[in-house]
Amino acid sequence: MLNPRDDRSLTDLMAGLVIDISGLFRKEIELAKAEASENLDRAIGALETLLVGLIFAIAAIGVLLSAVVQGLGAFLVAQGMQEANANALSAVIVGVLVALLAWAMISRSLGKLGDRSVRFDKTTASLQRDLDVAKETVR
User: Fold this and answer.
1) Which residues of the chain have pLDDT under 70?
2) Fewer CB within 10 Å, N side or C side of the chain?
């Protein structure tokens, strides 16, 4: 039995192929937009978490640092150091430790942001499948 579409001209077939391919690429663009939006939402969520963590860290450090500095200063005074020197040295020691801790937390968050924030895995795979189908259609 003959297909009623078998009598189309080569021009009609090519025009249909162009329409199909353009529609396919429009859908791929829509997929890329959706994936970009998903990646952006994930990145914004990570940034929000990073900022909230930094705010809590600053607040906690502000409350606890004075107690730690005073405690270390008192310990150094008890070891025979002059009070002014003991307070200055304890402030420097605590400040360096807190800076290292803050650096570690920020580095970890930035590493998480860089891992998967801007990758288009679904779109890339879909485009590869479409390219394979287009190659088979042209053969």
Assistant:
1) 1-6, 115-119, 138-139
2) N
